[in-house]
Each structure stands twice: as C-alpha cells, then as structure tokens.
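Appendix B. One record, verbatim.
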Amino acid sequence: MKVRYFDDTDTAYIEFSGHPAAETKEINENVYLDLDEAGNVVGMTIEHAGTQANIAEISFQRVKQRAA
C-alpha cells in the first residue's frame, strides 16, 4: 500500500495494488474509488484531504489475530 499526498491540490491517493483502474466510482464529492476489471478496489482518491481525512496525522498499525 502506498499513500501519496499532493500539497498543491490537498489531495491524497491511497494505492492498494498495482493493478490498472478500469472504473472510478464516486462515493461522495470528495472520495473516489478506483476499481480493476474484476471490481476489486485498487485505489482511493480523497479531495480536500487536510479536512476530510486528517492527512496531517498518518499512522499504521497491524493487528494480529488472537489465538482462540
């Protein structure tokens, strides 16, 4: 996964895979999902990321499954 932030447009792009996008779906006026030919999410664009996604603070946490 890659997160790219573009200061000049206040846009964030989260890339989930390297597959090419075949279709883009608008979730709302600020969020768009890129889908591959099979309908899998390959990326997400967030416009106005500074206010829509609190892009100033990014963290990553991997949560392991608990043993039963």
